[in-house]
Structures are given as structure tokens and as C-alpha cells.
Write a structure and sequence with these properties.
Blueprint: E1 2-5, H1 12-17, H2 23-26, E2 38-42, E3 52-54, E4 57-58, E5 60-64, E6 67-73, E7 81-87, E8 90-96, E9 103-107, H3 118-135, E10 157-159, E11 164-167, E12 170-171, E13 178-181, E14 187-189, E15 194-202, E16 206-214, E17 217-227, E18 234-235, E19 240-244, E20 254-261, E21 264-266
Parallel strand pairs: 9-11
Antiparallel strand pairs: 1-9, 2-6, 3-4, 3-7, 5-6, 7-8, 10-13, 11-12, 13-20, 14-19, 15-16, 15-18, 16-17, 17-19, 17-20, 20-21
Length: about 270
């Protein structure tokens, strides 16, 4: 994969998020209600709601002082404007602000990785269904830590979240994760405690593992050289789950990390 333009930008609010003080703030992602971001919504109740849903998915809840908050993952394709939560049958609204991610143009020499054949497309669609099902896993009942452990030690970001990608001049889906550059064989560690709910060697994602941390928080690790855990394994925060590689649609060794909250991939840098 050869980037024609791989300029790395960091929104001003990303730096600001590092300045949040206090132990409670440190464990929560900053409030960034944009497409691909996270909204923290005060539910103005001292009693934990029985059910909070956003777009038909259960939402993670967190007690903030006397009140409960909804911590909502917003889809990258979300339209700016008013969005609604259902809280024990009552509607709460919040605003999703517009945000423009940068554009990245990539060149891939292997045509099969750009325009797969019909038989390969059937495989890709089946894999996408499997991955999307794992996004909504409910295997773990837990209230997870939201300050995630970096899965690769001291790895620079080689591909930011949310960039609008053109591959060989053809528009493709925005980048739904964070690429962390590291040599093949570098250990990959679990971002938080949880259960491995899916592994596979996928056409685009390569060797991949997905971990359910509870309350709708899932992490996905792609392009690995080796996976050392299996579906159903329980892992601790910081436990090795495999090694960095370049499997799938990748021509350089790196880890693609996705963070999924209530079924939506969101910016991992909000959690790291």
C-alpha cells in the first residue's frame, strides 16, 4: 500500500483531551459528539436506568458523581443534528456536530485487493457479517475500564481514524480504526480485560481477533502475523494475544486497532 498523501493531522480537541484532570475524568473518553466520536450525556437521574438505547443498541452507562451518564458511540456515517436516546421508554436528545476528516489517496498494486472477483466478494460479505455480529457481542457482563491499554508499546500512528480513503482513485469506506506501525513479531496486547469472541484470517483484515470487554465495548486487532488466543479465551488487560504482521490488505507491518462502542467503530485515540 503506497500513500500518495499520508499527512498526519491531530485535531485540536485531541490534545485538549489529554489535559482532563482527576481520576474519574482520566478513565472516561472526552465528550466529542461528532461522527465517529463519543457523546457523554447526563441522564439527570440518581437511579441507574434499566435500559438506555441508541439506534436500537444498548448504551454503556457510567455514574458521574450523583448522576448517571450515557456514554454513546456515534457512527462515522451519522448525520449531524439532533439524535435521540431512549431512556426507560422516554426520549432524550443530543446534538451531533459536523466534522470533516482528512482525505487520503492510496495506491495498491495488487488489483485483487482493490476489485475482488465475484467468488471473493461472497467470502468478503460472509466475513463482514461475522465481524458485525461480533461488534454486538453480549458475551461479557462487566463495566469495563474506558482508559484502554495501548496494544503495541510506543508505536507511532501510521494511519489515523476516520480518513476518507480513495484507493487507486476509487472512493472506499472511511478508515474505521487506528493504524499503529511496528515491526512484524512485535507483541500485541489486550487493551482491556475481556473474552475473545471471534478470530479469523479475513480477506481484507488478515489475521484478526475481537475481544468483548462488556457493556457494548469491543476491540478489534487486525493484520496480525500470529494469533495466540482462541475464541472463548478470557484475557487480562495487557495480556499478549498475538503479534504484529502484514496479513490481509497491507503491504507494511502494522496493527489496525478498532474500538467499537454500542455497535459503532469510534476513534480509538479517545480511549488511549
Amino acid at each position: 500500500m503506497r500513500p500518495d498523501r499520508a499527512r498526519r493531522t491531530r485535531p485540536a480537541w485531541a490534545a485538549a483531551g489529554l489535559l482532563l484532570a482527576g481520576p474519574l475524568q482520566a478513565e472516561l473518553p472526552p465528550d466529542r459528539p461528532i461522527p465517529g466520536g463519543v457523546a457523554r450525556i447526563d441522564l439527570a437521574t440518581e437511579e441507574r436506568p434499566e435500559q438506555v438505547r441508541y439506534a436500537d443498541d444498548e448504551v454503556l452507562l457510567h455514574r458521574d458523581g450523583a448522576h448517571w451518564q450515557a456514554v454513546v458511540g456515534i457512527d462515522l456515517d451519522a448525520e449531524p443534528g439532533q439524535h435521540g436516546l431512549t431512556v426507560d421508554g422516554k426520549r432524550h436528545t443530543f446534538t451531533v456536530a459536523p466534522f470533516e476528516y482528512e482525505t487520503q489517496r492510496l495506491t495498491i498494486d495488487e488489483e485483487a485487493m482493490v476489485s475482488p472477483s465475484g467468488e471473493t466478494l461472497a467470502r468478503i460479505r460472509a466475513e463482514q457479517r461475522e465481524i458485525r455480529a461480533a461488534y454486538r457481542s453480549q458475551a461479557v457482563e462487566a463495566e469495563p475500564r474506558l482508559d484502554l491499554h495501548p496494544p503495541v508499546d510506543d508505536a507511532p500512528v501510521s494511519g489515523p481514524f476516520g480518513v476518507k480513503r480513495y484507493i487507486n482513485s476509487e472512493p472506499r469506506s472511511p478508515h474505521s480504526g487506528l493504524d499503529l506501525a511496528a515491526p512484524t513479531g512485535t507483541p500485541v496486547e489486550a487493551a482491556a480485560a475481556g473474552e475473545v469472541v471471534e478470530t479469523g484470517d479475513y480477506y481484507f483484515n488478515g489475521k484478526t481477533a475481537l475481544i468483548d470487554h462488556g457493556s457494548g465495548l469491543i476491540t478489534m486487532y487486525c493484520h496480525m502475523d500470529e494469533i495466540t488466543v482462541a475464541r472463548g479465551d478470557r484475557v487480562a488487560r495487557g495480556e499478549a494475544i498475538g503479534t504484529v504482521g502484514a496479513t490481509g490488505r497491507a503491504t507494511g507491518a502494522h496493527l489496525h486497532l478498532s474500538v467499537i462502542l454500542n455497535g459503532n467503530p469510534v476513534d480509538p485515540e479517545l480511549f488511549l
